[in-house]
């Protein structure tokens, strides 16, 4: 039967300290990078939400402007018809 102590993990003295320190530094650098990446993604998500809100507000403003332009066009057409009637009446009166 195999002894469980033979299978247990242990650190051999032949592993250099520099290797252990390097692995620890790389692990902490990876954690730091992931943390900064997470904060950048969160910031971009906030910016995206702000941009979406601004886009909705801009679309609403464009819609209001389109309605105003349509009203002005209708008023302008009514004025043009009135001017044409006046010119028609004047030209018929000159004859």
Task: Describe what you observe in this structure.
- This protein has helices at 4-7, 17-93.
- The chain is built from 2 helices and no strands.
- The model has no long low-confidence stretch (mean pLDDT 90).
- The protein is mainly α.
How is the topology of this model organized?
Blueprint: H1 4-7, H2 17-93
Question: What are its keywords?
Answer:
single chain; 95 residues
Query: Helical region count?
Result: 2
The structure class reads mainly alpha
Helix content: over 70%
Uncertain segments are: none
What is the string of helix and strand elements? Answer: HH
Shape estimate: rod-shaped
State the end-to-end distance: 129 Å
Strand % is: under 5%
Biggest pleated-sheet summary: none
- Name the average pLDDT: 90
State the total count of DSSP E strands: 0
Supply Rg. 39 Å
Summarize this entry quickly.
This protein is mainly alpha-helical.
């Amino acid at each position: 039967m195999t002894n469980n102590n033979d299978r247990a993990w242990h650190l051999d003295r032949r592993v250099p300290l520099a290797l252990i320190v390097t692995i620890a530094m790389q692990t902490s650098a990876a954690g730091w990078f992931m943390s900064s990446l997470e904060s950048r993604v969160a910031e971009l998500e906030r910016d995206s939400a702000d941009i979406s809100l601004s886009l909705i507000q801009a679309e609403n403003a464009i819609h209001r402007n389109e309605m105003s332009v349509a009203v002005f066009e209708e008023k302008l057409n009514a004025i043009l018809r009135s001017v044409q009637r006046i010119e028609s009446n004047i030209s018929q009166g000159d004859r």
